[in-house]
Amino acid sequence: LEIFKLKLAEERIRKEKINATLLLNVSREKLLKLYSNANVFVCSSNREGFGIVMLESLASGTPVISKPVGIALDLKSKFCRIYTNTRELISFVDEMWKTKKNKKEMKEQK
Fold first, then answer.
1. What's the predicted TM-score (pTM) here?
2. In 10 A of CB 40, how many CB atoms?
3. Which of 3, 70, 78, 90 pairs with 84 at a CA distance of 20 to 30 A?
4. What is the helix, strand, coil percentage profile of the chain, to 5?
5. Per-residue pLDDT, 29
6. Degrees (nearest 5) of the Cα angle 109, 43, 47?
7. For 45-90, how does the pLDDT look when each residue is reduced to its tens digit (9 = 90+)?
8. Which residues pair with 80 in a beta bridge?
9. Would you state the pLDDT for residue 20?
């Protein structure tokens, strides 16, 4: 079932010409590098336990955009935005991607 979902996701990315790459079973070292090189991390999960991925992203200096789940509600700030619909998600991604302002501010506060 997971392979089928992966194939569907890959097909959609290709069809819609989305600039994205799906990665599985990434080493810890590479994962941390991916977090720190990203302009924004989007957590699109409808259910999130503790939310370690959001904490790792923030710790790497990358802002987070999440659905209102798990720890995201407690992390809500200018570095962790909450979206409830696609329009908000696109707006937040555009804002963070184009300006890279939040990422720069996060680095300055460290």
1. 0.71
2. 19
3. 3
4. 55, 10, 35
5. 92
6. 125
7. 888 777 888 999 999 988 999 999 888 888 888 888 999 998 898 8
8. 64, 77
9. 77
Give the long-range contacts of residues 98-105, CB within 8 A, separation 24 or more. 100/39, 102/40, 102/63, 102/78, 103/39, 103/40, 103/61, 103/62, 103/63, 105/78, 105/79
Q: What would the pLDDT profile of 3-27 be if each residue is shown by its tens digit?
A: 777 788 888 888 888 777 778 788 9
Separation between Cα atoms, residue 44 and residue 81, nearest integer Å: 12
User: Measured between alpha carbons, how far is 4 from 51 in angstroms, rounded to an integer?
Assistant: 25
Q: How many residues does the chain have?
A: 110
Structure tokens at 108: 């300055």
